[in-house]
Request: fold
Amino acid sequence: MTIPGCGEIAERLRRSTVLIHAGPRGNGSGVIWTADGIIVTNAHVARASALRVQLWDGREFAAEIMSRDTRRDLALLHISAEDLPGALVADSSKVRAGELVIAVGNPMGFVGALTTGVVHGVGALPLRGLGAQTWVQASVRLAPGHSGGPLADAQGRVIGINTMVAGRVALAIPSNAVRQFVSAGSSDGWLGVSLHPVRVPQRNGHRFGLVLLEVEPGSPAAQASLLPGDILLGADDHAFAALEDLMTIVDGACLRTVRFEFLRGDYSRIRRVTVQLGASRRKGTIAA
Reply:
C-alpha cells in the first residue's frame, strides 16, 4: 500500500501526536488539537490523577484534565505550551469505505509508531454494549498505547481518535464528534463514575449491566454510597440494555432524583439506591 508523500505526512502526524504517561495504568497517545496546548485523548487513557505529556521533541509537561466524558471515551487536556504543531482535522462525514488511512501512536514503548490500512465503513456496530455510537472502522493494526492517537486520511488530516479494536477492525471516534466535544466540553449530566458494560449471569441466562470501575469522591454516585465493583442494572424500574440507556437518564441539568437498581457482591440480591442528579459540576469531573 503506497501513500504519495507518506514520509512527510507521517512526520507531520508524529509531531502532532503526543505520548501520555499515565503512571502504573500504562501509557497512551493524544493529539495536539490546538497550538496553545489543547490535547485530545481517550477518557480511558486519562484516568490517572497525575498525567504527563511528552512531545515529539522530548519535552515533557504536566497535563491538566479540562474535561472527561466516559460515554464518548474522550478527554480534553491542557499543557502550558505554545506554538505547538496542531493537527489538521478533516470532516469525518465525508469519509468513505476504501479510503487509505494512517494511524500513529505509542504502542508498547515504540514512540511515533505508524500503521496504514483502509476504511471499512463509518457507522454504528451491531455489538452488544456499544449502543448506537458511530465509529470510523478501519483495517489498521492497533496495540495498547495507540489509544487516543490519530487516525488520519491520506493527506494526513485527522478523521478520528483511535479507541479500541473489535475483532480485527480498529474503531476510531469520528473527528466531527471530537470537534463537538472540544467545543461543548463534556455533557451536563454528571453521575461521577467510569464504567464498563458487562453480562451478568442469571438463572435464566444473562442480564446487561454496567460495572462501576471508579467513583469520584464527592460525586452524586459517591454521595449515594455507590462503590467500585457495583453493577448498575436499571433506573426507575426500567432495565438497561445499553450504555445509552444510562446516558438518557443522566443527561440534563435540572435537579432531580433517580432510583437505581444495582448488584453488590451477591448476584441474587438486587439492591436499590436513590441518587440526586443535576448538581453543579466542577472543572475536570467525569461525565458518565
User: Anything to note?
Assistant: DSSP finds four helices and 19 strands in the chain. Residues 280-288 have pLDDT under 50 and may be disordered.
